[in-house]
Structure formats: structure tokens, C-alpha cells
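Dear colleague,

As promised, here are the two records you asked about, laid out in our usual form so they can be pasted straight into your sheet.

NAME FIELD: protein one
SEQUENCE, THEN STRUCTURE:
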Amino acid sequence: MQRATRGGRAQPWLDCAVTQGQPAAVDPDVVIAVDSVTVSRSGTDLLRDVTWRVELDERWVVLGPNGAGKTTLLSLASGRLFPTRGTVQVLGERLGRVDVHELRTRIGLSSAALADRFPGDETVHDVVLTASWSVVGRARESYDRMDVARAHALLDQFGMVGLAQRRYGTLSEGERKRTQIARALMTDPELLLLDEPAAGLDLGGREDLVRRLADLAADPDAPALVLVTHHVEEIPPGFTHALLLRDGTVVAQGLLTETVTAENLSKTFDTPLRVSYVDGRFAARAG
């Protein structure tokens, strides 16, 4: 079993990709590089001719309706899916030419599919701590003081330290989401992917999570962030860029305030929408 923690940020981005035997320098600032990518399943294109770049220190939101291809794109970025056509590089490594199990240790992921694997009787503290060994459910693996201290600090950062000894299965939905994000950060990842982190939360839970994610986005030591959502109201302040998807294709992408507009959102969701932007927060309604 291989420990998931890593020694530093700089070295992985100095790797080189190899194309047809010729070394190609990788831009150390590019965290995700998706080039002309199509993903097909059973004759249907889940993504079609998508090109996308995420750079170091950027905070991206991926928006679109159900079936737009958002989760498929996140699966590519997490090394859990390979493209049918095109190329994907993550943290300087090209999918298909890298050990994806090693690559995944450098990526923090919070998703409903992963959360369903956590044992309900596991303590909240151990749900976070076991990310150090990339396992679900504590067994006989050993943890040092630094592991324990980091798990405690992350639980504190997300308002969960008072519930550290509670059983995960007894938590509210909002408490589970915050625990999941703390776990995703446990290995000090270079890239953090959040798949609909506010789904299922009530208004208070959503606003609490948005505030905490805004604090994370403002942290200069935080990893590059990609957040998937259906709702502009869930975009935390401090996010910098947006990618809008519909039917597996890109509607628009770029700087957040230039991309999340009434025109672009109306095309993305196929309905006339009005968009407001106040105090760093978006809102949308039918127009």
C-alpha cells in the first residue's frame, strides 16, 4: 500500500511529456490541459471537441445543465476516465502515459460517488485521516503526529473539529460535505476537484459552505480549484474563471465575470435568463 502524501509542489510540474519519442516541455503553470477531446460511450458523445486550460492559482467553476458533460470532464481531470479522441495532461502528465494511481495521489477529489464509499460507523476524524493512505475505512495502517495534526487542522478549517469523534453516518448533509472537502485536502494536493459540493444543502448549509470555499479560494497556498455546479448562486467569491457546457460542447469559457453573462447562461440552459452580480455573488432568474 502506497502512502498518498507528497513532498512538495514544484517537482511534479517539471516533468516532461513525450510525443513520438520527442520530449515536449510542459508549461509549469498549466495544471490541466485538455486538447480537442471527445469522450464517446455507446455511440453517444459525452464530450465533443473540448479544449480547456487550467493554470496554477486559477479557480474555475464548470457550469451547465444535467447531461452537459460536467462530471465527465471532472473524471478526465482526476485521471478516472480516458478520452476517446484528443489528449489530456494533468499536473504535467499525459493520460495514457502515466501511472494514474500515482497521479491520483496528487489530486484532491470530493464527489458523491466517493462519499458513498465511506463507512457510516467511521469517525469523522478517521474519514479525513485515512486519505493519507488513500484508503476508505481505517484498518491497521499507521499515522504519525503530523497526519493527526493535519486532519485536526482541516476539520477545524471546515467547522468540523467539534464533531471529530462523531460517526460519519450520523452527520447532516452539510456536515458530510465539509468532511469530504477536508478529506480531499488531506494529502496537500496540487489540484482540488469539487463535484457539486453544495448539492442537497439547505440555504444555511449552502451559504456556510460557499463562505468556507471563498476563504479557500483566497488562500495563496491553496491548490488550483475546479468546482462543478448547476447554479450560479453556488459560485464562491474569489473564483476567477468559468467554463459553460451544454450537450458535451463548450458554450463559453474565460474570466468569470466576462463568461457568466445573461446571454451565455441563456444559451447554456436553453432558457431566457437574467443575471445579477452583487458583492462578488451571482444570481439568475428567468427573464
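NAME FIELD: protein two
SEQUENCE, THEN STRUCTURE:
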Amino acid sequence: MRLVIATRNAHKVQEIRAILGHDFDYLSLRDFPSAPEAVEDADTFEGNAAKKAATLANWFSSQKISETLVLADDSGLEVDALNGAPGVHSARFAALDNPAFAPGRNSPDNANNEKLLRLLASVPLDKRTARFRCVLALIAVPSSPASPHELAAKARFFSGACEGRIAFAPSGEGGFGYDPLFIPVGHERSFAELGEDVKNKMSHRAKALAQLRKSLSISAGGASSPSP
């Protein structure tokens, strides 16, 4: 089964591949340089994920590419002391108020992390609670054309969250995004220090992908078939 992941983030593709296993023929936006990218302007993770998946599924349909599943995710960090920010703006957090970055585009991980630490500078450890949240949207490419709006309405959603706290300084060389700052509950080291094997068993994306895997009835090395 062909699964196209609606991202150009190689780290994200690697993480999804590691969690879902070898039951799919994985592709990403890197394999389709002319594919359109959706503007992530929804105010919910579900809205952004569905929009990304529907935009790509619609394009595949116009290219007469069928028998394909499109998977998109919108993930973010919710910090309680910041009233849930950066939330859906996690990837472009630093760009929201810094003209040095292109408006509406993702800002570098280090810039996002620096802004987060700056805003939490006076917040004590017990008030630095946060969670990573992930929502996946899965859409089957239709054999006949359909609008992105129609396709988004048919999206199947899978979600997961991972509770933790924000450290006072980054640590670790692994992971991406806010991983060097996020310490999950039950651990004293960041996601960037714990490594992929540990992270992929407990992360927000791992939990959402576990729901997806169950829904698709993927056996441990067997074939995949969509649930009714």
C-alpha cells in the first residue's frame, strides 16, 4: 500500500516509518516537487491536518494517481504557562513577531526554542508543564476528482498526546523541533537525549500512529487493509 506523507521534513518521515513498520511504500513531498503545499491557517490541529491531506489528495487525483493513501499531521507543543501556546503555531513560533523570518513560513528550531525559553525565563519548574499533541488526518485519493473541501470532510483522524515539562536549557543532540527542551513525565532527560527507540514508544505521534495502525489492521509483518 502506498502511503504519501504530506511533509518535506525528513525527520518526521523517518519517525513515522520507524513506528508504522514496513507495511507501506513510503513517499513524501520530497518525491513530488511540483505538489502543492497547503497554507496552514486553521486554528486547530485537526483543521490543518485535514487541509494538508486534502490538498495533496486532490492534486494526486488530478494527476490520475490513485490507490494511494495520504497522511498529514499537525503537531505542536502546548505550554500551560503560555495558555497553550505555541500550539498550532509551534513550527513558526519565532516568525510570528520577528520580521527577520518570512511571514507564514516555518522558523528554525533553534529560534523557536530560544523564544520559548525567553518567555518562560521567570517560570518555576512546577509551572513549566506542557504537552506535545499530534493529530493525523488520513485520506484515500479518489479515483474521480473531488474538491479539497469534499476530501477534508472525509478525513479520518487519529490523535495522541504526551505530557511533560519544559527544561531550563536544551540538552541532547537527537530529535527535532522542541525535543531538546521537552522532558516527558517519568523521565529526567529530554526527548533529544532519550533517543528514537524510547521516544517512538511514548511520543504524541507514536500514540496517534498506534491508533492508525490498529485502524488499518496492520499485522506485524502481514498485509494492510483499511477497516470498514
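A couple of things worth noting about protein two: DSSP finds seven helices and six strands in the chain. The beta strands are 2-5, 25-28, 68-79, 129-140, 156-166, 182-184.

Best,
R.
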